[in-house]
Amino acid sequence: MPQQLALSVYRGDSYHWQFTLFADAAKTQPYDLTGAEAKAEIRQATGTPVLATMTCTVTQPNIVDVDLAATDSQGLAIASAKWDLQLTWTADGRVKTVVAGAVTVEGDITDSVVVVSLATGQPRVSAFERRAATG
């Protein structure tokens, strides 16, 4: 089972998390990430559309950096979701989810987004864009 880690996101902000992975409970043996690629997504639930894709960077021997850009967190127009960090070894296709958890999203105030309709796919307009359009 993946390690559980809940993320708290303030919509519109940038985030960076760094994970140092170990193969043993004593944290003395680095987890071998040779040939591994990392991927992390936020979704409302399993099988639902991706709400945000996080950028992942693997650094040998056992570090994974995960970034959520401000533009991606701005699109999180929900109060809660789920996320996970998945590793795939390209040589043999082996997959392991190492971290997962809930995502709590707090709505922003400055440059907040007006959501017209998620169902119809209407564009979102920031407060700054509305002010610029109306003069």
Task: Give the helices and strands, then pairings.
Blueprint: E1 3-4, E2 7-10, E3 15-20, E4 36-43, E5 50-59, E6 63-68, H1 70-74, E7 80-89, E8 95-106, E9 113-114, E10 125-126, H2 127-134
Parallel strand pairs: 1-8, 2-8
Antiparallel strand pairs: 3-6, 4-5, 4-7, 5-6, 7-8, 9-10
What report would you give on this structure?
- The protein is mainly beta and 135 residues long.
- The chain is built from 2 helices and 10 strands.
- Strands 1, 2, 3, 4, 5, 6, 7 and 8 form an 8-stranded mixed beta sheet that branches. Strands 9-10 form a two-stranded antiparallel sheet.
- It has one domain: Immunoglobulins (Immunoglobulin-like).
- 10% of the residues lie in helices and 46% in strands.
- The longest helix is centred in the C-terminal third of the chain and has 8 residues.
